[in-house]
Amino acid sequence: PRSFRPETAARLRGRIEAILDAAKARGYRQGENPARWRGHVAQILPGRTHLSRGHHKAMPYNAVAAFLVKLREREAMAALAIEAGGKLEKTNAINRTTSPPGLTQSGVQQGFALPKGGVSSALTADGKSRTILRVADVTAAPALTKEQAEKIKAELTRTMQADTLNAFVSGLQTRAGVSVNQTMLGQLLGGGPAQ
After folding, report:
1. What are the tens digits of pLDDT across the range 150-169?
2. pTM of the predicted model, to two decimals?
3. Kind and range of the H or E element at 133?
């Protein structure tokens, strides 16, 4: 399970408070807002504890753009990782179905959404920290053979036909109250029960 994160909890409580205030203003609810901090939740829950070590030193605003350019262009990310208080760990080339140790599958997919040289961050597998992703190179998929392309086209056609048929049958059942014998429909269409 994830550890308790006070900042996230405070933001969530604030959002709930805003939603309930909006509902009250529009006449959807009455009475006090149970999510209000002052005079209500503050009396029940302990106050937030603040970190004793303080914040990291902030980068001057006018230096952020240059830092991002440096981050995108730099091969030696180790110095940047140290500068940011982390460590550099490189992985071998990955594909859409592999997850290097410590990186979730959603982190891998996030990396695949980036262009060459793109930089992003993703939550680590343990949920305790973030990993900086930098796309060093992009390898294009090999060209499909004619047989592979035809196979994909046929599969997409079958899937689209099944989706269209399922939407039509669902519409008949919902709007017209019609009952459809799925087994018979599948047999009529040349297979087993409808997909």
Report:
1. 999 998 888 888 778 878 88
2. 0.36
3. strand 130-134
- State the Cα torsion 24-29-31-34 to the nearest 10°: -80
DSSP-derived 3-state class of residue 82: helix
**Helix ranges, 57-137 (H):** 64-73, 77-83, 105-112
Q: What is the pLDDT of residue 147?
A: 93
At a CB cut-off of 8 Å and minimum separation 6, what does 109 contact? 96
Instruction: State the Cα–Cα distance between residues 45 and 12, nearest whole angstrom.
Output: 15
pLDDT of residue 1: 40
pLDDT at 140 over 90: no
Mean pLDDT of 90-103: 75
> What is the full DSSP assignment across 142-187?
PPPPHHHHHHHHHHHHHHHHHHHHHHHHHHIIIII-----HHHHHH
Q: Give pairs for 61-65: CB < 8 Å, separation 24+.
A: none
Separation of alpha carbons 80 and 120, rounded Å: 14
* CA atoms of 42 and 143, how far apart (whole Å): 62
